[in-house]
Amino acid sequence: MAGPRHISVSETSRPVLPRHAKLKYDETRKVWVILAPERVLAPDEIAVEVLQLCDGERNVGEVSDQLAAKYAAPREAILADVIVMLQDLADKGFLTEAREKTS
Amino acid sequence: MSDVLGNPTIPPDASDSLAVLEKSRSTAETFGIPLAVLLEITHRCPLQCPYCSNPVELDRSGKELTTEEWKKVLSELAEIGVLQVHFSGGEPTARKDLVELVKHASDVGLYTNLITSAVLLTRERLSELADAGLCHVQISFQGVEESLADRVGGYKNGHRKKLEVAKWTRELDLPLTVNAVMHRQNLHQLPDIIQMSIDLDADRLEVANVQYYGWALKNRAALMPTVAQLDECTRIVEEARERLKGRLTIDYVVPDYYALRPKKCMGGWGRQFFNISPAGKVLPCHAAESITGLDFESVRSNHSIAWIWQNSDAFNRYRGTGWMKEPCKSCEFREIDFGGCRCQAFALTGDAANTDPACALSPLHEAIFKQAEREAEGDTNRFVYRNFAGGTLESGNDA
After folding, report:
1. ipTM of the complex
2. Nearest CB to A31; choose among B11, B18, B247
3. Which residue does chain B place closest to A28, by CA atoms?
4. What is the Cα gyration radius of chain B?
5. Which DSSP string do the residues of B261-319 spell out, in sequence order?
6. With an 8 Å Cβ cutoff, is B247 touching chain A?
7. Comparing C-alpha atoms, which of B132, B131, B129, B162 is closest to residue B145?
8. Which helix (DSSP H) or strand (DSSP E) does residue B150 occupy?
9. What's the pLDDT tens digit per position in B157-177?
10. Residues 6+ apart with CB under 8 A from B1
11. Which of B4, B64, B14 is nearest to B34 (CA)?
12. pTM
């Protein structure tokens, strides 16, 4: 079963795209897309990069650490942007959270 | 990022990191391949809903494309840039090869959606569909209360079965959309339909008021809501959208009879959408075959689907604005609504190039609006059920 339906994104959440939202590179239009029921979203470059890091293992803080290191940018600013973007996606129903590991 | 899809080509507003993919102005005349395509793989259906969106002249099973033909279509769609396919009908699960078709669609990289009445599904078959890669299930409901819902669908115990299949859908971790077609005889159940969607753990609810073509036009007197009913419906949807934000997405389709401006039907003819009929005809809209005098190309012809989309006469006939007559021709909204719905214009005026009478600028608007209002207040409640025989009147008496 999937994780919780409506999530509130914070530094410690470990978000992941739910099964019904698929991130894919569209060869015809040369653009990344998120395929969802009755919707096709066009995430921008940053959103794509964030979503590729959201594997249900890393938490939002760790995702931001990686991006801050890669772009040599202030971590707090990146964290704030990442949370806003992911919360937007969550509010639209296209983000879930990995459950606590039981192992 | 919240519009329904079907919009061709190229990215959006740079300020929105998650914008809906849609056409930019500069490409408006290039008619890129649609993102999603509706596949009506059969017209067979155990239900007999009086507002069915299929044409009144249904394709018999002997005319349906074969498994191999559908697989070839799916491969071709993926190749030319279609991203999503909706398996619809009729009742798509009436085809024995549905699992095989879904599997093939997934294999070629298409996002798959099943639009179903659900009554033919077993848990085992739904599980096979999930394993084949099915991404999303949309189940139609005719109401919340068994006697009314089963009467509208003309199928005994259908409602109970739908509830069961909806539960299996979520147990299999498939996202669920509840599709509720609304009309005068079930609009009072809307609040309960919203609650039912929550109880079923649906992700999305489509509140779709009947659009009056084909079967629904035959049944207009039994289905047309009053203006007061519609206003109440809109109020309920708006309240629920606010209350259920982040929990349930509600898409809302209003009937156009009571509007002053027509809807931009299909996003404009041949601009953002096509569907393929059971017999393989490539159509600008699922009702397009109701317009006589148009010749629709088939996937069985020598032409590719991309060629049919770009070049066939039927797609080009009402594309853009060149075909328009007055009052559309000089209207400031002509690029906004493209004169409304061609099928409705044909059905109500006899000429698909006339302004859709849903538009207040149509000389017929007033008369049609008044007629609809009278019908909504009338006591004709019996349905003409949809079937291959051209329809059967419900037994019993009105009112």
Report:
1. 0.81
2. B11
3. B81
4. 20
5. S---GGGSTTTS--EE-TT-BEESSTTGGGSTT----BTTSSS-HHHHHHH-HHHHHTS
6. yes
7. B162
8. helix B146-153
9. 999 999 999 999 999 989 999
10. A39, A41, A88, A92, B16, B18, B19, B20
11. B4
12. 0.89
